[in-house]
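Methods — Computational structure assignment.
A single polypeptide chain was analysed. Its primary sequence is given first, followed by the predicted tertiary structure written as structure tokens.
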Amino acid sequence: MIVRLRGRSGKRRERDLNLWLVVGGEELKEKEISLENVRICYSPFSRTSHTAKVVASVLDIPFEGSQCKVIPDIRERFFGPSFELKSHDKYPEIWAMDEKDPFMQPEGGESVDDVVTRLTKALAIMESEFQECTVLIVSHGDPLQILQTILSAAKEQATSPANDLMSRIQAIRVPSVLSQHRKFALNTGELRQLV
């Protein structure tokens, strides 16, 4: 499951997040997933750390314990000085560049493929440390959309000769796959199951 955030209005977001977590918590119960097997991985940015704390509190998981882990490689994508911390009106321009060439870096920023490199490292950490666990990833729009893109494409490769996840991700690192990350657009505070 993934949670995407946006905005800085803490109280309203917390209330909305509590609502999503109640729904998500019910899903955990329905799937008979024990809270002892839930892990929360989050970006080091303050808004994701805050959300991860709220999630942990609602699920009654100790935030400072081993079930919660900051993973720097799931941080927000760096769009470069021409786009970073600018109006959201600039996003369509970035996404048009991504669709044209997901390996092209915006001036001084990260390409979609650069983010895939980071996310692959993060997945390797999660896979090695959290076997047999349900992982809740609290991150940002672009990385989460890219993550869903690569995991969906890798899932389709499940019958390929390379059966480990990292090999399948490597096989789908092609423009026709990576340029499609916007088809997995997320709403603010959305809770979505990945696999």
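Note: The helical segments are 10-30, 46-59, 91-100, 112-129, 141-156, 165-171, 175-178.
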